[in-house]
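BUG-366 | component: ligand-complex export | severity: low

The export step for guanosine-5'-triphosphate jobs runs without errors, but we want the raw record kept on the ticket for reference. Input record follows.
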Amino acid sequence: MGLWHASAVTEAVMLVGGQGTRLRPLTINTPKPMLPVAGVPFTVHQITRARAAGVTRIVLATSYRAEVFREFIEGADLGIEIVIATEDEPLGTGGAIRHALPYLQSAPDAPVLVFNGDVLSGLDIGGLVNHHVAGSADATLYLTPVADPRAFGLVPTDTDGRVTKFLEKPQTPEEIVTDQINAGCYVFRRSVIDEIPAGRPVSVERETFPGLLAANAMVLGVVDRGYWLDLGTPMAFVQGSRDLVLGNAPSPAVSNPGPYLVLADAEVASGALLTGGCAIGRRAQVGAGAVVDGSVVFDDARIGAGAKVTGSIVGAGATVGENCVIDGAVIGDGASIGAGNELLAGVRIWPNVQIAAGAVRFSSDG
Ligand code: GTP
């Protein structure tokens, strides 16, 4: 143990095999961690953060649409060794970590980092690992306080920082014993991964962590109050993209934070207004007088003249017609929204759907 120093961790497993159901229809064609956020697939922000923390080798645990990762990684140079492990059938979070085991090179006592593929955070990764090593822990979890923990897994700790319980998605006031939740990044002693059952689905949250506590293993929690966001829902996805573009969320993959990001070969007409940390994808077009505020416009999408797109996601190759109002909506890849439509909060348009001009109006004209 005394041999470990600042960058004690060299290997990480990134869990990127989920179906991303909450982000449909965007995840029909593209797995959630491959959706573009501030100009690069979300997973690139995580990979570059791990690299900056001293990780030299990442096992990408894929399942759903694994080929999209494979194609991207083969063509990218991220300055780090990336190995792709693919489950034939999704094995859940714990099963995916166990499936990655033969791809790991770490010694049995070495710390291995595990990341959920959809969390954007400013966590001090090196600090988490040092805490794990100094405490001779079997597992150390990154915890973050949230205002409403009901959608998450609660992880109370005692005064020594030892985890006392795992409470998945608590509902009653008695169950809400802490505001600390599992933030989706943890360190395992490699030999703990060996003990996860192989070849069947396992939930790390529901089975592995509670099992470790039952076996009296040393499970520590580190509370970090810095930036944290789970990009699992459309509005969180928009928020994460804005925060990266604006520089409110840290990522080595964003070199020039600013009020907007326009990617290569996009065409923005003069008189269009880009604001609020919006991102305009490659070859996308924004017409004269259009306003794009805090939204994510994917590659090859077109925003017509005079349209107003706020807090929304416009899928790859989708078209938003002239003078449309799109607010808090998700437009699937290749969909076509005719001129003058109004699509407001929560609306999701499936890929390639065509909506005729003026077909949808929410506000009354008086
Ligand atoms: P939702 O379906 O919207 O809940 O999203 P999700 O599929 O991403 O599920 P969830 O957010 O619970 O998953 C947490 C992390 O684990 C995500 O990064 C997923 O990609 C990943 N994950 C979930 N299930 C599996 C699996 O069976 N195999 C692998 N390799 N990763 C998984």
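Assignee comment: Attached the raw record above. The chain is about 20% helix and 25% strand.
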